Amino acid sequence: xxxxSVLDPQAIENLRALNPGDNDEFLREIAQIFLEDTPxxxxxxxxSALTGDVExxxxxxxxxKGSSANIGATSLRAAAEKLEHQSRVQGIAGAADLVxxxxxxxxxTQSALNTLIGK
Length: 119
Prior knowledge:
Elements: H1 3-6, H2 9-18, H3 25-51, H4 54-71, H5 74-90, H6 96-116
């Protein structure tokens, strides 16, 4: 799948504009933080779903939504937003499909970011 369908090109350009002329060093740093942190939030989703901790689950979904928006991962942001909304409105019972969608979108985002930053 093309990188542009996973990552918002404007968001990437906005990140580049924050530190122009650095040869994408800032972008690579932000991407690396995102790539290291998001799996931890996904683990929190899984663990809090098992323990029934709706508050922790919702916080993890919210965190994924925010960091995805910052990096321009539009599909991942949308999936996390749905998950956060569902957990706030209906709790976490029946959220497994949305968690799977978040995981799938993260893999796509991870691949696109690794291609973008030359990993």
